[in-house]
Amino acid sequence: MSEQDKVFIFDTTLRDGEQSPGATMSHAEKLEIAGLLDEMGVDIIEAGFPIASEGDFAAVKAISEQAKNSVICGLARANFKDIDRCWEAVKHAKRPRIHTFIGTSPLHRAIPNLNMDEMADRIHETVTHARNLCDNVQWSPMDATRTEEDYLCRTVEIAIKAGATTINIPDTVGYTAPRESAALIQMLLERVPGADEIIFATHCHNDLGMATANSLAAVEAGARQIECTINGLGERAGNTALEEVVMALKVRNDIMPYQTGIDSTKLMNISRRVASVSGFAVQFNKAIVGKNAFAHESGIHQDGMLKNAETFEIMRPEDVGLQATNIVLGKHSGRAALRSKLAELGYELGDNQLKDVFVRFKTLADQKKEVYDDDLIALMQSGDAEA
Ligand code: KIV
Ligand code: ZN
């Protein structure tokens, strides 16, 4: 595959993810997560917002010193003080990046009370300043998806001319839909001079549950960097989930022929670590990393799975770092699954014996959400006692 087909994965678990109320991580936890992201093949790690606090600065600096392969990025608002502080933290990395942003939509322009021309000047000055410090500069027009198209094109052109090497297009409030997400990237690529010389990134929030779809639509239109977080951690409904875009690009490579550098077998472990250190449990039915993502309870599904796993699974559990599919025994399970589970536990049953155990199993399953191995052993032992 050519370099053009590579999609860079930019992880912002430690910056946008940590902005979720209550998700604060300790210094040591951030270093651990950054180490796992680096090992997993994340191209760019947004390690924090150095001006935000002494703790954030120290974490970004330490992650910069520790990083082996990933580019380490820090966030800075559009002013020299933020950008200088960010550079002080990331300059220790082998491959540093400064990410600076300003809100360009009418609602966001009203906050610093800048008119369009004043904001354009601010973008020119701040991106130029960042580029004088660092070769690798990312610029984001916050709330891009609610910014007037002409003004968005104007500001993106200014940032590119001032030296930005990546232009990130945030859907800050999770408002866009897949078709619009694609059209926006396509429009920018067509209209902005110099757009073909930089990388466009997509940064989606999940307020309407469309972050993954919007990110993939942007890639199909020409974006080559996806910004995301582990488990979709992030403010409100969160950010695009890293594990979802990575596995979607892997499993549906037939229709989305782009590659990432992520070792997907490390997804489950990092998901669990992020859930544990952030205190944000992963919902059971979460795609890819949820407890039930590779679990089957119904008899029809279990029977199909025991014959051929592809009947009800589109990816192998091993591909995301799980050992095996989880056949969960409950009231919807059938004889085939019960027989297979009992065999695993060392009980080989004939047809008549199975018939009897199956009746007792169903009575038990009606009383319990899930029948565990210990329950089955007790069931077998009580059968022995009765015999
Ligand atoms: O959602 C957003 O707009 C952001 C920016 C700071 C890039 O996180
Ligand atoms: Zn964001």
In sequence order, what are the helices and strands, one letter per element? Answer: EHHEHEHEHHEHEHEHEHHEHEHHH
Classify the beta-strand content into a percent band: 5-15%
Number of strands: 10
**Average of pLDDT:** 95
Name a few traits of the molecule.
branched-chain amino acid biosynthesis; 15 helices; 10 strands; single chain; 387 residues; alpha/beta; two-stranded parallel sheet; acetyl-CoA C-acetyltransferase activity; elongated
Can you walk me through this structure?
The chain is of the alpha/beta class and 387 residues long. It is 45% helix and 13% strand. The protein has helices spanning 13-17, 27-40, 54-66, 80-90, 106-109, 116-133, 149-162, 178-191, 211-221, 242-251, 267-278, 299-307, 335-344, 351-367, 373-386, and strands at residues 8-11, 44-48, 71-77, 96-103, 137-142, 166-171, 199-204, 225-228, 295-296, 326-327. An 8-stranded parallel β-barrel has the order 1-2-3-4-5-6-7-8, surrounded by 7 helices. A two-stranded parallel sheet has the order 9-10. The longest helix has 18 residues, at 116-133. The mean pLDDT is 95. Bound molecules: 3-methyl-2-oxobutanoic acid and zinc ion. Residues 16, 170, 172, 203, 205 line the site of zinc ion (ZN).
